[in-house]
Fold this protein.
Amino acid sequence: MELLFSKWVSAFLLCCWLIFSVGHSVEGLHGNARVRAVNLGGWLVVEGWIKPSLFDDIPNGDMLDGTQVQLKSVTLQKYISAQNGGGMNVSVDRDNPLEWETFKLWRISESVFQFRTSEGQFLTCSGDGDSVTATTESPSDSETFYLERNFNNRVHIKLKSGTYIQPWRCSPEPRVFRKQPLYLHEVEASNDNVLTADFPGTPGWDDNPATFEMTFVAKLQGDYQLANGYGHNKAKDVLKKHRNSFITVDDFDFLYRHGINTVRIPVGWWIASDSNPPAPFIGGSLEALDNAFSWAQAYNIKCIIDLHAAPGSQNGMEHSASRDGTVNWQTSPEHIAQTLDAIEFLASRYAVHPALLGIELLNEPSAADVSLDILVPFYKQGYQIVRKYSSTAYVIFCQRIGNADPFELYQANIGSSNTVVDLHYYNLFDRYFDKLTSSENIQFLYKNRQSQIQALNSANGPLVFVGEWVNEWNVTNGSLADYQDFGRVQLDIYNAASFGWSYWTLKCKKQHWDFEWSIRNNYLQLQPGIKLTLLASMLAQPNRKHLLLNV
């Protein structure tokens, strides 16, 4: 009893200190607190790097939508190239592959594909004897090819008719359809070789004109790739198991015990039509989101719904559910309207839920593709939609990623109350950080991150939210102490953000991205202020006061 009484007295004194020492507080959080959150990444929006095993059983699983490949003729030792990146002829004449020689796959089945050029056109061949060009914007049967592949990543490419393609030497004379194969010395006589569907018979895997070496350049592993790779029925089973097990009520218990008062939950736009989402997306995420709200309410944790994936893709990354890395969200009024519909669906469903703290209208729009002329009106419309259903829910506007200044959103006058600007801070993804030492990384935090947060905090406008950050860097062989210092400095700086912060992410195959692993292994040490928030929260919930013995 004495131990319990001592704990209660300590908790009471600490909470009193917390109440009088914190300047700004976020409405809806206990104890004059700010947001101390963790992202539930890789759960309702798939990211293969977070949980690679989701993709393990897909046939030809390295040839998914958006996979970038290069194709080299084994006889010519030249690469297939879409001239000018597309819109013209296709040749087999390049020694060194660059953008023109790189094609994005659109997967029809495990052995049937379409090839998209860097400029967006598709390889096309009308029929037997015809040349392959790259002039079609929308694919159909003529843009569909059948691939045969051996274990050495050699491939044959053929039409639906069964005819294989091969290089053919251009000449000034009118072309005559050839039933006989071209000999190697004939092809090498020209530096400009086109592809034609006229290889006779069935090629083997020796060095023959119909055989190409396939090199993989890049891949995407998001919702589109998973669903289209498995097919609807199998993908439904895989995602149901994942959604039911990756995040559970036990995770909310863990977060609660470690002073986390909010979760940021990425969702995809197809959640608005969860019972019958557009192909190839799979329903079921709405039930999981409902569960998260129930678990959050039980543990006095708040929820931020983050629209992470928009139709057409706002940034071309796998976490935006892009099919092939193309950014098309901003090009289509229909895509923008669908995004606003998703915001309305989420706001109408969760506005009155006690666990809702805010709605983030769009995650990481690309500065290179999405102009402010498009983004700001969208943000204003989204703000008004949320306000139709809630006068208090925070409306969060994500900073554009790339070459963009967050002050641009402060100057846009998007909304009048409870607005937030979300910044994502990583000492990664830029070559600048590649060779920084541990101390140089920390100096960068103080010089750049801290000064920016201070300036934004002082601006007259939205609150400041570091909505994504991670205790990871490009430092080779960083020690436990190095990571602890890096995490401590980040927490020191991000704690000053007027709305708060959110760690990316709760669970991840890569250990230092995994919040739970980082806490359990002492690489990330939460500070006393976060524990105080936990104590205040516990005191506000009589049914959880027994947990004070474990604080």
